[in-house]
Amino acid sequence: MNLFDLSGRCAIVTGANTGIGRAIAAGLARAGADIIGVGRSSMDETAASISSTGRVFHALNADLSRVEAARDVVAQARALGAKPDILVNNAGIIRRADTVDFTEADWDAVIDTNLKSVFFLCQAFAKAVLDDGIPAKIINVASLLSFQGGIRVASYTASKSGIAGLTRLMANEWAVRNINVNAIAPGYVETNNTQALRADAERHADILKRIPAGRWAQPDDMAGAAIFLASRASDYVHGTILPVDGGWLAR
């Protein structure tokens, strides 16, 4: 028995249009899962990488800053004939400013996308799989800032700390109902969200010096953890926040 085989499974992956979401979607497809990709922009590259695996891919356009859109994702997936039993909450945004200057608009934009919509998408997904009576896996994407404070990213830190808390709460409620809820906490990854950090030569060098692995992560580095948490190999894993950080938190 291959504990990591996802054949016959179907995963919803939010933010599948780019970066970590695209990498996780492709990784789950290579392991055998069909994919429902959710994003606000074109997912042509994601579709191409998944079609090469022979798995089915459907793209859903949704603005996950709106709770109504998040709630509708599961219904839209099922309208396509899919019965998803894996949910990856990856979509997220970041706003940077000194805390004394941080605006309410930047606070609300990040919290709505990164935390509020995640909660209600998890809720809709859980209701569907409980009604179907099938086991399921929820994988939230947390952050190093689920453990640390960071600087100049007040709403992002709050949202990712909240993701860690919700992951544990949902695991407490749903583990006995055959829904595993866990999270991946990526380290510093080369994505659009970290472009500003990488453009700051001094900050980039300071970060790199602290990473024991000696490099920033690539989005593909997150795929293995996602496959593990989506598979039977993690059936007795509940409420874990798994750092994939090149050793950052160990230093």
Please summarize the sheet with the most strands: 7 strands, parallel
Q: How many discrete structural domains?
A: 1
Distance between the termini: 37 Å
- Indicate the proportion of strand residues: 15-25%
Taken in chain order, the helices and strands follow as: EHEHEHEHEHEHHHE
Shape: globular
Secondary-structure arrangement, i.e. CATH architecture: 3-Layer(aba) Sandwich
CATH homologous superfamily (4th level) name: NAD(P)-binding Rossmann-like Domain
Which secondary structure elements does this structure contain, and how are they paired or packed?
Layout: E1 10-14, H1 19-30, E2 34-39, H2 44-51, E3 57-61, H3 67-79, E4 86-89, H4 104-132, E5 136-141, H5 154-174, E6 179-186, H6 195-199, H7 201-210, H8 223-230, E7 241-244
Parallel strand pairs: 1-2, 1-4, 2-3, 4-5, 5-6, 6-7
What does this protein look like?
- Helix 1 packs parallel to helix 2 (44-51), helix 3 runs parallel beside helix 4 (104-132) and helix 4 runs parallel beside helix 5 (154-174).
- The chain is built from 8 helices and 7 strands, in the order βαβαβαβαβαβαααβ.
- With 251 residues, it is an alpha/beta fold.
- The chain has one domain: NAD(P)-binding Rossmann-like Domain (Rossmann fold), CATH 3.40.50.720.
Short note summarizing the structure:
The chain has 251 residues and is of the alpha/beta class. The chain has helices spanning 19-30, 44-51, 67-79, 104-132, 154-174, 195-199, 201-210, 223-230, and strands at residues 10-14, 34-39, 57-61, 86-89, 136-141, 179-186, 241-244.
